[in-house]
Request: fold
Amino acid sequence: MIIEDDTEGIDSLKKYFFQTKNLGSVKYFLDIEVARSKKSILLSQSKYVLYLLSEAEMLGCRSIDYPIDMNTKLLPD
Reply:
């Protein structure tokens, strides 16, 4: 049995399974903040990171440049 290309049927299935709605400009997507300007788009996860720090009760912690001394040698033991 040979099945020929049915572009009309395929298009109909695509429209049925992949219905999309235009919800306007996106502000957050998968915990990534999307900020737009006339020249660029900025993606940021700062709100999500603040949420994680809050959950871990680490909002008051100070940051450091390197979490471990650059000259530290780790041993297999």
